[in-house]
Write a structure and sequence with these properties.
Blueprint: E1 2-6, H1 13-25, E2 30-34, H2 44-52, E3 75-78, H3 81-84, E4 96-99, H4 112-138, H5 143-155
Parallel strand pairs: 1-2, 1-3, 3-4
Helix pairs in contact: 1-4, 2-4, 4-5
């Protein structure tokens, strides 16, 4: 299964999702991430907390969804509310589209401890979803059954 995680700036939540899903479900899922208006660099705290949680940050970058025309994802998952409301490029027309809203830990600025906690909570949620996503991919669901399973997972 090929999945493209979308977040407007592709610097935090979508990158977290890409790295974690590839680590947990890399044998059954190929995950990439992109943005409609990429920031051009991954947020430094994204890289810091991914590494602290034991995930590889090699090759992670902020890139445009226009770079993925040839990728042909079976599933496009938006992880920020702004991206969920955007019109996806035409070449995603055959992809199943679902929304899995996640809070943006890079916007937490009260204290270093609160930033850390925010990243850890989002990483934990993405890990939970990645394990379930791996099971869904192994079940080889298609059509409405796949859509229902993915929407249910994102709503939890």
């Amino acid at each position: 299964m090929k999945i493209l995680f979308i977040c407007t700036h592709n610097r935090c939540r979508s990158v977290l999702s890409e790295a974690i899903v590839n680590h947990i479900a890399g044998a059954t899922i190929l995950a990439k991430s992109a943005g409609s208006e990429p920031a051009g660099q991954v947020h430094p705290l994204t890289l810091k907390y991914l590494a602290a949680a034991g995930y590889s940050t090699t090759g992670l970058q902020s890139q445009s969804w226009d770079d993925f025309e040839q990728f042909e994802p079976g599933v496009v998952i938006t992880v920020c509310d702004a991206a969920a409301g955007e019109a996806c490029p035409v070449y995603f027309s055959r992809s199943l589209k679902v929304h899995w809203g996640l809070p943006d830990p890079s916007k937490v600025s009260e204290s270093e401890e609160q930033q850390k906690r925010a990243f850890e909570e989002v990483i934990s949620e993405v890990e939970r979803r990645a394990h379930a996503l791996n099971a869904i991919a192994k079940a080889d669901l298609e059509g409405d059954a796949l859509r229902v399973a993915l929407n249910k997972l994102g709503a939890q």
